[in-house]
Specification:
318 residues, alpha/beta, six-stranded mixed sheet, four-stranded mixed sheet, 13 helices
């Protein structure tokens, strides 16, 4: 198996037909077919089922494609990284961010990368923390900002900030007062919550309390849009941060109350895959992200407590 075989195989997988794959790779269909036949012979398994309308991957083909994506992306990154050594930083960097992180620093990240690293092609993916973690583990993103990731030897993590959670909802549901609400009282409210699993883990650090909330939730959703719309419609309340529905809180459409006895919090981590060495471009983007996080917290735009010493704005590496 060589890189060219893998590249041709990935093209067939992604394009669905030999003809379209050959056009993308700018080779003859016969050459592509020959390389695929050699690859299947070497592996002793069929990778596609030939059908009148195209090529359908077999189970072995699906598995090989998952590896091929990783290998080809790593090879491209390695090549670009060596080329960049000592020169202008360039290359592709894919970043996955939880919704709150995008809201706090997403635009500033895009602007800063465009201004300081014009040859870096930034790809930004917004999703719930559970989905962001999946994107990272599948190498669809190289760097991820997510809450309360599981302990996993494949992950390299750095805790950067803690956020205190609050109860968010209409005043007629959570009470027309700024007084804190006890956790035991919170459980009696109509709670709208994230679905169980890794996404729900992003809400708070205490798993035992999380299970109690999950058991009482009247609705479980994996959509920030749906949860926000449900809050505004008066269907219930949720546990989140002030940043989550910042504009609606400031306009008075929604209200917040601090949660006590106990207080609830969650921790944001910058995560990478342990086995994947960072490129110059990735290191530059990571530096920008950490500086922007520090600036957002210090300015009060992001109500959180920093867990590491972050440099002030303007101190990213050039």
């Amino acid at each position: 198996m060589d890189s060219r075989q893998l590249r041709y195989f990935a093209a067939i997988f992604e394009q669905g037909t030999l003809t379209r794959a050959a056009e993308r790779e700018r080779v003859a269909v016969s050459a592509l077919s020959h390389h695929l036949a050699n690859l299947e012979h070497d592996l002793s398994v069929p990778l596609f089922v030939r059908k009148p309308r195209g090529m359908q991957p077999t189970a072995a083909g699906e598995r090989l494609y998952a590896h091929a994506k990783l290998i080809l992306k790593a090879m491209a990154s390695a090549e670009q990284d060596v080329i960049d050594a000592g020169g202008e930083i360039a290359g592709e960097v894919s970043v996955g961010m939880a919704f709150s992180a995008v809201k706090a620093i997403g635009v500033d990240l895009a602007r800063t990368v465009l201004e300081r690293y014009p040859k870096v092609k930034l790809s930004l993916t917004e999703s719930l923390s559970g989905s962001t973690l999946m994107h990272l583990m599948m190498s669809e993103v190289e760097l991820a900002l997510l809450y309360n990731p599981p302990t996993d030897p494949r992950l390299k993590t750095q805790a950067v900030l803690d956020e205190r959670m609050v109860c968010v909802g209409k005043r007629e549901i959570i009470g027309d007062t700024d007084d804190p609400i006890r956790f035991s009282e919170l459980l009696d409210l109509p709670i709208i919550f994230l679905r169980q699993g890794v996404s729900a883990r992003a809400i708070m650090n205490d798993v035992a309390l999380l299970k109690k909330i999950e058991a009482r939730a009247i609705l479980q959703m994996n959509s920030v849009q749906a949860i926000g719309g449900s809050l505004l419609a008066g269907l219930g309340c949720t546990i989140g941060t002030r940043l989550f529905m910042k504009e609606q809180i400031e306009s008075g459409d929604l209200h917040v109350r601090p949660i006590v006895e106990p207080e609830l919090s969650r921790t944001l981590y910058v995560c990478e895959l342990t086995e994947r060495p960072p490129t110059y471009a990735l290191e530059a983007v990571r530096d920008v992200i950490t500086v922007l996080i520090g600036e957002a917290v210090r300015s009060g735009r992001w109500e959180a407590t920093l867990l590491i010493n972050l440099p002030p704005a303007g101190h990213t590496k050039a």
